[in-house]
Amino acid sequence: MEQYIPQAHIIMAVAALLVYIIRGVMMLAGNTTSRIMLTLSSFTILLLFASGVYMGFAKQLSFADGFVGTKIIGLLLFVGFGVIALKQGLSRPVAIVLWLLGLAAFVYTYLIATQKIMPLFS
User: Fold this and answer.
1) pLDDT tens string 31-66
2) Is the whole model's pTM more than 0.70, yes or no?
3) Phi-psi map region of 58: left, alpha, beta (phi>0 left; psi -120 to 50 alpha)
4) Domains of the chain: which residue ranges?
């Protein structure tokens, strides 16, 4: 079972990104986010975080390690910017900037995970 966790983590990352992009496009089109999309978003993020924590424990990584810490901070920024950006009542330009910042946080976290760049903290 442990060999499938990294694959599940990758699938959840792709699913979370797709849901985030779909919700952003819906926001740009002026549509409100449906309850189903909100639930799907929460579910994918929860599974993404849970699989990452599980892998951290399975590989006996220290959560004080810069690699792990930066990935956790990146995921929290992705979620935080997304939650704020997709709230109703924000001006369109502010919502777009916050949504793009969330997307940038996801890309940065992906680049760290694939070891294409160094973590923010060492």
Assistant:
1) 766 788 888 888 999 998 888 888 877 777 776 667
2) yes
3) alpha
4) 2-113
| Burial letters 9-46, b for 16+ CB under 10 A, else e | beebbebbbebbeebbeebeeeeebeeebeebbeebbe
From CA 122, how far away is CA 112, in angstroms rounded? 12
Distance CA 107, CA 14 (A): 11
The overall average pLDDT reported for the chain is 84
Q: Which of 83, 98, 77, 78 is nearest to 33 (CA)?
A: 83
Residue whose tokens read 């993404």? 48
